Amino acid sequence: KRYHGKIITVPCKMDSGPSKVFNIVKASSGDKKKSKLKKDKKYEYLLVGQFLGPKQSDGAIACQVESTVVETYFDGYTPAEIRKLSREDKVRANRIVNQSSSQFIHDFSSLGQIEMKLLLTADNFYRKVASLSSSSNWLSDTANPFMLVVKRT
């Protein structure tokens, strides 16, 4: 409980293998009444990957990367703009996404100091752990990230 909301800096890197998840999703809004009144739909980048420690034996953990961190690699394109562009000019949108994600992977696949925090509260974390199968790789399951990458220093 004492680590929830606290930023933890750890030496790690993103696994450059194919285990990443990337999408553009509706941004979660804390106030549902306001979001229903607004016609503007807010979107964010969703990037989840496995992060590895400095030693081979450290293993991997699944982390979601904060949308604002990913957005800096998209040359000023917001998630909503990329989504719209994908409908109008799919080839151009795919080129932007491929170039931006390649640069992100290049930067994050080398060892560095990564600032992250717990994605779930302690109660939600334990609830999620209890609901998962007892397989040994649940920490690295990109469908269930539990850390949020907020910065690379």
Please tag this protein with its features:
153 residues; alpha+beta; five-stranded mixed barrel; 5 helices; 6 strands; 33% helix; 27% strand
Description:
With 153 residues, this protein is an alpha+beta fold. It contains 5 helices and 6 strands; from the N terminus they run ββαββαααβαβ. It has a 5-stranded mixed barrel with strand order 1-3-4-6-5. Helix 3 runs antiparallel to helix 4. The longest helix is centred in the middle third of the chain and has 19 residues. The protein is globular. The protein starts with 7 loop residues before the first strand and ends with a strand. The mean pLDDT is 85.
- Mean pLDDT, to the nearest integer, reads 85
Question: In percent terms, what proportion of residues is strand?
Answer: 25-35%
Indicate the low-confidence ranges by residue numbers: none
Please write the string of helix (H) and strand (E) elements. EEHEEHHHEHE
Helix content: 25-40%
Give the neighbour order of strands across the main sheet. Answer: 1-3-4-6-5
Query: What is the CA-CA span between the terminal residues?
Result: 25 Å
The strand count comes to 6
Biggest beta sheet attributes = 5 strands, mixed, barrel
Instruction: Tell me the radius of gyration.
Output: 17 Å
Question: Structural class, judged by helices and strands?
Answer: alpha+beta
Number of helices: 5
Shape: globular
